[in-house]
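Revision sheet: structure tokens.
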Amino acid sequence: MKPQFDYGDGVRVMRTVRNDGTFPGEKTGARLVSRGSVGFVQNVGTFLQDQIIYAVHFLDEDKLVGCREEELQRADAPWVPRRFEFRDKVTAKVAFSVGGTIVVEAGREGEIVKTLNDDPSRGAVVYHVRFPGRTLVVAEEQLSPCPAAQATGARSGGAREQ
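Predicted:
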């Protein structure tokens, strides 16, 4: 196993990192570092002799977090920012139809289940969004944050049926 990153390298975390119970002083499941945050490799080690783990210092959060290699990319690599993350509540800006039948009315609340496009060469970010009774593939520009999620401070066109 040869590490992809070295001491001092700038890296970006590709998905939100939550406490798996090993980060002291934070509850299990608490968000440690948000997707897109940039940090610097301070140490390189292994876990169970088959996984490379990097100790990354995220300056904005002032946290030293263990990250697996597949969770990181070079800080200067192309990056696709996105507005929503897993479990965010969203509202449909437009009605969605499948086979000519409206299945989700504009203004209907849904929840992000998965992000499908993290590749900058492929264009727009799209999501799996769970609406009552259906999961649809929806482009980011057809969604807005759920007003109820914004009010409480919670994270908050065409579609293909999933």
